[in-house]
Amino acid sequence: MAKQIDVQDLKKGMYVIDLDRPWTESPFMFQGFEIRTDAQLRELQRLCQHVYVHDREHVTGGPGEDRRKGGVGAGSGTAVGGEARQAQVLAASLAVRRDPSIHGEPVPLQAEMVQARRLEADARELIYAMQDDVRLGRNIDESRVQAIITGMVDSVVRNPDALIWFTQLRNKDEYTALHSIRVAILALAFGRHLELTVPELNILGVGALLHDIGKLKVPGDILNKPGRLTDSEFAIVKSHVPEGVKILESLRRTPLSAVEVAGCHHERYQGGGYNRGLSGDRIGLFGLMAAIVDTYDAITSDRAYHAGISAYEALGRLYAMRNKEFHGGLVDRFIQCLGTYPVGSVVELTTGDVGVVIAVNRQRYLRPTVTLVRRANGAAFPPEAVLNLAANPAAAPGVEIRRVLPPGAHGIQPADYMPRVT
Questions:
Q1: Does residue 404 contact residue 312 with C-beta atoms inside 8 Å?
Q2: I need a labelling partner for 262 at 20 to 30 A (CA). Which of 22, 42, 232, 249 fits?
Q3: At 177, which helix (H) or strand (E)?
Q4: C-alpha pair distances (Å), 35 with each of 7, 38, 45, 103, 192
Q5: What does DSSP assign to residue 347?
Q6: Could you give the CA distance from residue 154 to residue 37 in angstroms, rounded to a whole number?
Q7: How far apart are CA 124 and CA 363, in angstroms?
Q8: Sheet holding 369-374: strands in order across?
Q9: What are residue 19's DSSP bridge partners?
Q10: Cα–Cα dist 173/304, whole Å
Q11: Could you read off the pLDDT of 27-77 as tens digits, one per residue?
């Protein structure tokens, strides 16, 4: 719960969740932060008259509760163990995080890239097999779905950034298939960030991978129409939600809570979504998460009817829609999950040099690690030229990110700079 407090009463350890002015008018990351230094205190007191902090007394479970206890299995019947568990996770989306993650420290990124590459390839093969199965009226191989999601969950638990790198693989002619894989990866990384348990992540992952399965019942010429849809065409597109729910409900081993992802990923927080017109927390945790992740991937992807925008711009749009289209606390946590400059962002530094973000610094979000690609004078950097904006102040004094460039700027394809597999 948010509590307004005068800036003169702020203390280190408080968690600021909103300001009395737009975040863009401050030097702070817009997803909130814990006050840890005197410099942060002074800057808040200089900029603001009051701020909003998280009131720990209103967090579900009470102060000091060990969030690592509890959890549910795949047969719970409702998403994340029912309404009480959903409320707990939603409340925790605004909570101060002091304990180490229940999933431990991530393994080195490059060490996980081999497994991530294999899992993405297996998922792609599975999606195309499922497309054939649905079109020919055959049953989906549920055991194969479960096996691949189990592998993806294990990978994301070890290091979420490895699979996230594979969301850079985009082809508008393969949008439906690759979109499903990207949504599954992003949903799992998001769920890990929210500290969902491994069984919960497995349920979420199945639903995310299959969330658009109903689109196989929609004619391709309507899905890929470059112009504006007619009302009747839009009604056909919207039918992919109940069609997807019908397919998932027919599967014997798929938990009902996984169906929530397919059924609610187009619902909106203040209402106005489809197909049931739900609003607020009635949408359910998995549905609220799916709406954010699905929208993020859709607007960053090239489609027949629009060009994708940068990840940075997409996060800004999601932030502008918090508490309107999407749950505000979950939007903040999703932005925190990906970082202010997500991996794959093409950025221009204050030196004029251009590079690609290859790793997020989750302690200092504005200072990621960047592979340098193009000098300010247009010349190419040598291979393996890498700048850690947080760890190399002597090598690059005062160097910061000036701006994020549009996808494809200077002919740079982020997927070409994916960390090498070791």
A1: yes
A2: 232
A3: helix 175-193
A4: 12, 8, 12, 25, 24
A5: E
A6: 35
A7: 33
A8: 386-388, 369-374, 354-359, 346-349, 401-404
A9: 51
A10: 9
A11: 664 445 668 777 778 888 988 999 888 654 433 333 223 322 333 333 333
**Rounded to 5 degrees, what are φ and ψ at 335?**
-60, -40
- Where do the H-state alpha helices sit in 211-304? 220-223, 231-238, 240-249, 256-264, 285-299
Tokens of 242: 């109940």
**Measuring CA to CA, which residue among 422, 340, 413, 421 is closest to residue 171?**
413
Paired tokens of 186:
């992003």
- The per-residue DSSP string of 106-136 comes to PPPHHHHHHHHHHHHHHHHHHHHHHHHHHHT
Q: Tens digits of per-residue pLDDT, 222-256?
A: 988 888 899 999 999 999 999 999 999 888 888 88
Q: Crossing angle for the helix pair 311-320 and 285-299, nearest 10 degrees?
A: 140
Distance CA 300, CA 308 (A): 4
**Residue ranges per structural domain of the chain:** 2-58, 109-338, 346-417
* Range 237-258 burial, b when 16+ CB lie within 10 A, else e: bbbbbbbbbebbeebeebbbbb
Is-contact 278 264, C-beta < 8 A? Answer: yes
Interacting residues of 75 by C-beta distance below 8 A, sequence separation 6+: 255
For residues 67-76, b (16+ Cβ closer than 10 Å) or e, as one string? beeebbebeb
Q: CA-based Rg of the chain, rounded to a whole angstrom?
A: 22
Report the CATH superfamily, name and number, of domain 109-338. Answer: Hypothetical protein af1432 (1.10.3210.10)
Closest CA relative to residue 185, chosen from 124, 238, 134, 136: 124
**169-206: pLDDT as tens digits:** 776 667 777 899 999 999 999 999 999 999 999 999 99
Q: Do 389 and 367 form a contact (C-beta atoms < 8 A)?
A: yes
Q: Residue 160 is encoded by which pair of tokens?
A: 């979420």
Residue 154 token pair? 């294990």
